[in-house]
Write a structure and sequence with these properties.
6 strands, about 230 residues, 9 helices, single chain, Ribonuclease Rh, Chain A, 4-stranded antiparallel β-sheet, two-stranded antiparallel ribbon
C-alpha cells in the first residue's frame, strides 16, 4: 500500500513540474532608439539643405507648383533643422502644439512648400523646445549662416562631382565648420545630389557629424548635380 501511495505522489509531482510556469525573465533596458521624445531633449542639430532641381525632377516635385512650377528657379533650399541624439536616432513628434500660420508665407523664400513647413514643424520643430516662431527664426538663421560655394550657387549645366570634393568645397567656404561637419546625400540609386546636411551645435555653431549622419551620405564615387531649369 505504501508503495502504491508513493507512486501516486510521484506522478502528481511530475505533472506539477510539467505545467509549472517558467520563471520570469529579468527586465532589460529599453533600446536607445525607443527613448521617449521630449521637447528640448536632444544633443545637436542637422541643418538639411535640399538641392531643389533634384527634387523638381522627381515625381513629387513635378506635382509641386510652388517650388517647381514655371519660373521657379530655386537652388539650395531649406529642408529642415532637425534635433538629433549624439549616439543615434532623433526625437520626433514631441507635442501637438500648433504652427503659427502667419509664419508660412515669410518662410516660403527659403523653404518653398507650405506642406513641408507644416511637416517640419510637426515632426522636428516640436522637439526643439521652442515655439514655432522661435524655431523657424532659428532655422532661417542657420540657413543664412551657410555660405554656398560659388560653383554650386546656380549652375546652368550639369555638374558631376565627387561627394568628398563637395564636402571639402563647403568646408572651404565655411571655415568655422569642419569638413566632417558636412554630409552629402544622394538619391536615385546614389547618382543624383539630394541635399547637403550640416551638423550644428544647439547654438548653431559648426561641429563634426556623428557616425549615423555620416553613414547617410552618398555611397557612389560621383554625384550628379542637376542644373537650374
Amino acid at each position: 500500500m505504501k508503495r502504491v501511495l508513493a507512486a501516486a505522489l510521484l506522478m502528481v509531482s511530475c505533472r506539477e513540474a510539467v505545467v509549472a510556469p517558467p520563471p520570469k525573465q529579468a527586465a532589460t533596458a529599453e533600446p536607445e532608439a525607443r527613448r521617449t521624445s521630449a521637447p528640448g531633449k536632444f544633443d545637436f542639430y542637422v541643418l538639411a539643405l535640399s538641392w531643389s532641381p533634384g527634387f523638381c525632377a522627381s515625381p513629387a516635385g513635378r506635382n509641386d507648383d510652388r517650388q517647381c512650377g514655371p519660373g521657379r528657379t530655386f537652388a539650395f533650399v531649406l529642408h529642415g533643422l532637425w534635433p538629433q541624439y549624439e549616439e543615434r536616432g532623433w526625437p520626433q513628434n514631441c507635442s501637438t502644439e500648433s504652427l503659427d500660420a502667419s509664419l508660412i508665407e515669410p518662410m516660403m523664400k527659403t523653404m518653398p512648400s507650405p506642406k513641408l513647413i507644416r511637416h517640419e514643424w510637426a515632426k522636428h520643430g516640436t522637439c526643439s523646445g521652442l515655439t514655432s516662431r522661435e524655431y523657424f527664426e532659428e532655422a532661417a538663421e542657420a540657413f543664412a549662416k551657410i555660405r554656398i560655394p560659388d560653383a554650386y550657387q546656380g549652375p546652368k549645366r550639369q555638374i558631376t562631382i565627387k561627394p568628398a570634393q563637395m564636402k571639402r568645397d563647403f568646408a572651404a567656404a565655411n571655415p568655422s565648420i569642419p569638413e566632417d561637419g558636412f554630409s552629402v546625400v544622394c538619391s536615385g540609386n546614389g547618382r543624383f545630389l539630394q541635399e547637403v546636411r550640416v551638423c550644428l551645435t544647439k547654438d548653431l555653431k559648426g561641429r563634426p557629424c556623428n557616425r549615423e549622419v555620416q553613414r547617410g551620405g552618398c555611397r557612389s564615387a560621383q554625384a550628379i548635380m542637376q542644373p537650374l531649369r
